[in-house]
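Cross-check.
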Amino acid sequence: MAGLRSIRFRLLAAVNAAMALLLLVFLVVDYYREIAERVAQTHIALEGEAKTLLPAVLRLRPLGTPAVQEYVDTVCGQMQDSTSPGHHIGARLGDVVLQATAHHRASPDIFAAMQAAGQSATHRAMVGREELVVGSSEYADVGVYVSEYLTNIQQSARGQVLLRLARIMLLAVVATAVVNLVFLRMAAKPLERLVETVRQIARGQLGVQAGPFKTEELGYLAGEINSMSSSLAEIDRHRRHEMDKARRIQEHLLPREISLPGLAVAHLYQPATEVAGDYYDVVAVSDGSWLLCIADVSGHGVPAAMSAAMLKTLLMHAADRHVAPAQILRFINDRFAAVSLGGDFASMMLARWVPEAATLEYASAGHGNTWFLPAGGGAPRELPSTGLPLGIQENSTWETGCVHVTSGDRLLLVTDGITETFNPAGEVFGSNRLADVFRQCGGIAVTELVKKIDETLSAHRAGGALTDDCTVVAVEFMA
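Predicted model, tokenized:
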């Protein structure tokens, strides 16, 4: 059903309202015109009757007043109340006044009113509360007057007039229905097709075409919509091509197969859009140690992906000059703060694995989603942030933490897209639930651990789409 604000409803309402108003005005005007015409016709008939009676009265006058009275009564008596309920005849013979007695309407007042109407330009006169319409004919001192009540004339004509107007109204309704059908076929339906085409474009069905239409205006509008749809489809194809290339470039920046001495590493990388602001890496250091890195840039999409690419470049550059995680973070931060936009920042966990010493040095720039699980069991221990996120301010410093590891110990690094995953009810997955999954899966391979985390998150989302980039890096230390 069309909405009250739709152009279809408003145009139909406007057209029908205008036609209804014109029909109403026509019916009212025609009604009063028809009634007035019937009154005028009745007066002509009364006038003709008076002219017909006058010669007979003149011939009967020498026979005496009783003969004229009898004639007047006879003629008036022949008029049926159903056809002329207010019919009355009066005659003046010099000073003598005669009135028909057949219908018992004779009175001095009615004859006076008949005489006054005969002299009036409107041929009407009031008698009491009623108005008379009078036809008259006079010769010398003889006058004949025939009258009828105006209300009787109007009532007699009203039924026929209303029947005629009802027929006109029926024809007008049929004509309005035809106009509405023509309008729906020529304007409303094509407009609905155009609206549906625009909705399809809004839903992402770019390239869809509308029409053709028979009217020039709708054809022009459809042509413009089709041109826009084709242009948007071409732009979207180009955008998809560019974003696919950007995605492949970003994936190329990430480590493919990670093989480190004394470590088993598994990872999960799920961008929320074509490209992500998450970044993880494994970088060899010149002294034989290895850097494990995970970072989460604020925001989403292309800007975040560009910042993540900058972090990759800065990390590789820093690893050529420094070894300690805190020094590397300071090197990255000073340059990242200088080139990034105001308000952009990134969290980063940087851990240095020294195989010979079996130690793990780490520094965290506002990245707290890191857990260490001892091989002997127990609850995972979260490695806290040791300083501000990157890009907040220049010349920031970070503290360094150190963990001595044994064979079977595990490290789990994630971005906040994991812990901040929501289910349809709006409940967040949370750090505690992730730590429980990490603890419960301590006896399976890290590759299976990552799969388990992915399955648990998918079950929590219950079919919902990703709202943030999700990255997991799971590490097991081996002898």
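The chain has a mean pLDDT of 87. The chain is about 50% helix and 20% strand. Passed to J.P. for a second look.
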